[in-house]
Amino acid sequence: MSKLYVFDHPLIQHKLTYIRDKNTGTKEFRELVDEVATLMAYEITRNLPLEEVTIETPVSLAKTKVVSGKKIGLVPILRAGLGMVDGILKIIPAAKVGHVGLYRDPETLKPVEYYLKLPSDIAERDLIVIDPMLATGGSASAAIQLLKEKGAQNIKLMCLIAAPEGINQVQQDHDDVDIYVAAVDEKLNDHGYIVPGLGDAGDRLFGTK
Ligand code: PRP
Ligand code: URA
């Protein structure tokens, strides 16, 4: 059963407020998304398994711990997912990064695939699909499906803001994928934008319109 986790850490919520604000310009928007991505990565890795190792400090031997288990792969959905990659890599620097290119057709709101490049060993990795926005859920669901068709077995989805419709769609399509978000908003508007949301994440990150 897919679970939904909402990261309510005060710093995440504080920064999200300024990310949402229409008066926040591209430079600051980009910096804030990067910072929130780091904080969310800290939360999403909370239950990583540890193993004991013995090392030598300058004083004595020490039994201590390192992260064990499967290696991590990040899969941003282009374009807007790119804005969260560096923030996550700051604390998971060895993660490999695959890219899924999808855009949402403005008329049908259905995702259109245009790019796919993945690490060769995705079946052995714990994958985190990254996209700031989970609106209808079409893009995230399609990205997850593409990864599964390439052999991925263990997938999490991490988004800044989700609409209830998107959460339902992903949970219906991918019962095995847990969803991690900073906020669940009220609804989608007639154009499939999240309300109140933050507008068009790609445009705000890259300064396009
Ligand atoms: C945005 C966003 C998601 C998608 C969410 O991308 O980054 O990928 O929309 O909408 P959905 O849940 O209804 O599929 P967009 O299609 O605008 O492409 P872009 O990142 O290239 O701007
Ligand atoms: N994509 C965005 O960038 N924003 C939304 O609100 C919905 C889809």
Automatic annotation (TrEMBL):
Its cofactor is Mg(2+). Pathway: Pyrimidine metabolism; UMP biosynthesis via salvage pathway; UMP from uracil: step 1/1. GO terms for cellular component: cytoplasm. Its EC number is 2.4.2.9. It catalyses: UMP + diphosphate = 5-phospho-alpha-D-ribose 1-diphosphate + uracil. GO terms for biological process: UMP salvage; uracil salvage. Uracil binds at residues 194, 199-201. SUPFAM superfamilies: PRTase-like. InterPro entries: PRTase-like, PRTase_dom, Upp_B, UPRT, UPRTase/APRTase. GO terms for molecular function: GTP binding; magnesium ion binding; uracil phosphoribosyltransferase activity. Allosterically activated by GTP. Binds 1 Mg(2+) ion per subunit. The magnesium is bound as Mg-PRPP. The keyword Magnesium applies. Residues 6-208 form the Phosphoribosyltransferase domain. 5-phospho-alpha-D-ribose 1-diphosphate binds at residues 79, 104, 131-139, 200. NCBIfam families: PRK00129.1 (NF001097), upp (TIGR01091). Catalyzes the conversion of uracil and 5-phospho-alpha-D-ribose 1-diphosphate (PRPP) to UMP and diphosphate. Belongs to the UPRTase family. This is Uracil phosphoribosyltransferase. It comes from Tepidibacillus decaturensis. The lineage of its organism: Bacteria, Bacillati, Bacillota, Bacilli, Bacillales.
